[in-house]
Amino acid sequence: MAANAADTFLSRKAVVLGPMAGITEAPFRGICKRMGASLTFTEMISAKGLHYNPDSRAASALLTLDPAEVPCAVQLFGGDPALMAEQAARLAEKLGDAVCLLDINMGCPVPKVVGKGEGCALMLEPEQAARITSAVAQASSLPVSVKFRAGWDSESISAVDFALEMQAAGASMVTVHGRTRQQHYRGKADWRVIAAVKAAVNIPVVGSGDVFSADDAAAMFEQTGVDGVMIARGALGNPWIFREARGLIDRGERFEPPTGTQRIEVARAHARALVEFGGARAVARMRKHVAWYIQGLPEARRIRGLVNGMADHASLDALLAEYQEFLLSSSAC
Questions:
Q1: Which of 200, 196, 202, 145 is nearest to 174 (CA)?
Q2: Alpha-carbon distance 301 to 305, whole Å?
Q3: Would 184 be classed as within a structural domain?
Q4: What pLDDT is attached to residue 55?
Q5: Cα–Cα distance between 105 and 40 in angstroms, integer?
Q6: How far is 210 from 189, CA to CA, in rounded Å?
């Protein structure tokens, strides 16, 4: 991996925010980076979409970065080596020093992606996957990583062989999610597969799957020997997980979990940033985030019901401010 990228986030055990489509928009990534995430990844971006609609509103939103997260990683997906190479080169030129890594998604399990021979479908076509990785690595001035899964199903756990092929094709780093495509996000992630990949390759490895706390992050480092741990669903409503993980891993320090009022304060800041970033439908997209922020708090079900009926930011913020006062005055949190 190029020295600048390694220095950015692998100089110590990295704890990175994983990409989640429709969730990890720039405002949320910025919050996580300020909370201590070593690196953030954009939501996955279609190379085909960029080729045919490079100036679309959707493309612009996906490639908008929060100043706090720079430099970050950009995640591309696609099944055509030439298109992937073309867009990798353009992104490297367009974004410059704002990006330190190009990541290729070969792990997405959703049918609409897999059905086009993209995402995790490429684990069934390792030669094509290698051609894509090689093309991107040769076209881009940035280091290239590949994210994939343990295998297609329980009968085809192929992560080690796949990682070796991606390394040979020019990948500077791999990220391994310990579930198969068949599992989607059900069941448990098999960290033994991640450890086996780490033992097999000589490039950095990031492990992913079932990291929901600082203790989980520390345990993954201990059990697998990885260079980095990726947190995705564990950060939903809980960006503090990065601060907590860094404290525990770096210094053996434990933080008190955020209070309810602190959670609402960050939720309000998140909503403001998302509205500024995303306009009219931002409040609708924020509803799920509010549900995650308030999970387990008093009156959460009632507040969630009210939030789901709101369409404007002023009403949402007024409700959250009122709820914050309730939590403060009741000493509930």
A1: 145
A2: 6
A3: yes
A4: 78
A5: 14
A6: 6
State the pLDDT confidence band at 278, using cuts at 50, 70 and 90: confident
Q: Is 257 helix (H, G, I), strand (E, B) or coil?
A: coil
Q: Give, rounded to a whole angstrom, the gap between the first and last alpha carbons of the chain.
A: 45
Buried b / exposed e over 77-88, threshold 16 CB at 10 Å, is bbbbbebbbbbb
What is the identity of the amino acid at 134?
S
What 251-257 contacts at long range (C-beta under 8 Å, 24+ apart), as own/partner pairs, is: 254/214
The CA distance from 145 to 219, in Å, is 23
**12 and 33 housed in the same domain:** yes
Q: Are residues 270 and 235 in the same domain?
A: no
Domain housing 52: 3-251
Check if the beta carbon of residue 103 is closer than 8 Å to that of residue 75: yes
Given this model, what pLDDT does residue 333 score? 52
Structure tokens at 268: 């309000």
pLDDT digits (tens, 9 = 90+) for 188-199: 999 999 999 999
- Closest alpha carbon to 134 in 126, 205, 116, 4: 126
Kindly list the distances between the CA atom of residue 165 and the CA atoms of 4, 133, 169, in Å, as whole numbers in the listed order.
Answer: 24, 9, 6
46 and 145 together in one domain: yes
Structure token pair of residue 177:
């999610």
Which residues on neighbouring strands pair with residue 290, listed in sequence order?
Answer: none
Q: Where are the alpha helices (DSSP H) in 10-80?
A: 26-34, 47-52, 57-62
In the three-class reduction of DSSP (H, G, I as helix; E, B as strand; rest coil), residue 105 is classed as: strand
- The full length of the chain comes to 333
Residue 128 CB burial class (10 angstroms; 0-12, 13-18, ≥19): middle
pLDDT in tens, 125-168: 999 999 999 999 999 889 999 999 999 999 999 999 999 999 99
Residue among 278, 331, 235, 200 at smallest CA distance from 41 = 235
Has residue 333 been placed in a domain? Answer: no
| Alpha-carbon gap, residue 308 to 284, rounded angstroms | 8
Respond yes or no: is residue 333 known to be catalytic.
no
- Choose the catalytic residue: 72, 100, 108, 120: 108
